[in-house]
Design a protein that fits this description.
This protein is about 75% helix and about 0% strand. The protein is built from 23 helices and no strands.
Amino acid sequence: MDFAFNPGQEFATARLILKAILLSLLGIFHLIAFIAARRWHRARYFRKLSERTLALRSQWNGIIDGTVCPRTWRLNRLDCELVEAMLLDSMEAANAEQLPGLLACLRSSGLLDLRIHQARSAVGWRQRSALVALGRTRALEAVAALNEALDSPATETRIAAARGLGRTGLPQAAVAILDHLLSGGLPIPEYTVKNGLANCCRHSPQTLLPYLKDADGPARTIVARVLAELATPALGEDLIVLATDGDAEVRASAARAMGASQASFALPELSVLVRDQEWFVRLRAVVALSSIQEPGRIRPLLHALCDSNRHVRQRAACALSQMGSHLEQILYQVVDTQDSYALQAFVSELERTGATERLLEVLHKSGDSAAAAQILLQAIANSRKELSKSVELSAAAAGGR
């Protein structure tokens, strides 16, 4: 084979390597220059941003009351963005007296109309940004544009519209959400709908009642849950109707709402719901009973203490163990149930809350207490023995794995 030296080929290879090195160095130089230029530009921008923010803050009261002509800042893009951001931030923290002045400034400067136009004509993130900003204004004029965006084919836009309606906090915005929800469903995450409705109906939960009567399926469940979260004593009679609903989710929501109702309305219905066929309805009823400060709740809680579901028993035991002045009477009644699970749950809660020693002192001070004290001590011993056995079984299972 011929391995003759070829100087031309060797020089060509060297030139190619040299060019590659020079191009790499040139690329590195351009990258460093770009980074330096970008940092200089951003530093210049933030310096200008700070200067304009300080200048606008010094004229802020004049901008709000209109003595500073909007033309001085409205046609400057940076100033316009800064004033809008400052207005929206002020609206977030404004009370009922401060909000009208801020909203008047937003209207007179045309910023509100600009955002409404963007919400209707823009696309993508610009439209979604405009929808959320409209919600922050809490302006009634924004509801129509936000309502239109709920029909958008884009899921992100519908979510932004629902968020915007929720941030307005207006009952009219709740009506817009409810109309879409009942007319065929609102294809957005459930928590977004619930948050929006809760914020808009916080001061007027009665708005939800007519829609709850007409709703069915998942929409009915959502409205019932929101109503349970916002319930007030004024809803007492309406909640009685919901307590007999055929949907277990609605009954559970009604039970939760009754915790905020008057005892005269709530106790009879909760005494029925605590015997419901669905365990989560019974659990909600027990939670509601624990928030009602009436001696009449003891009987239904004792019934729940004997429930077949462990979570219901534990919650009932927790409620009963916190009735300090009635603990002696409750202990006798728990013993009379002859339910070992109920007694164990009650004693476990007494130990957890530190009420065991106080109850023993009360029993020793009373006349005929030896038997009850003996039962209580035996139950405590059994409870600790069961706990020790559970720990050993868990350790053995972990070791086997």
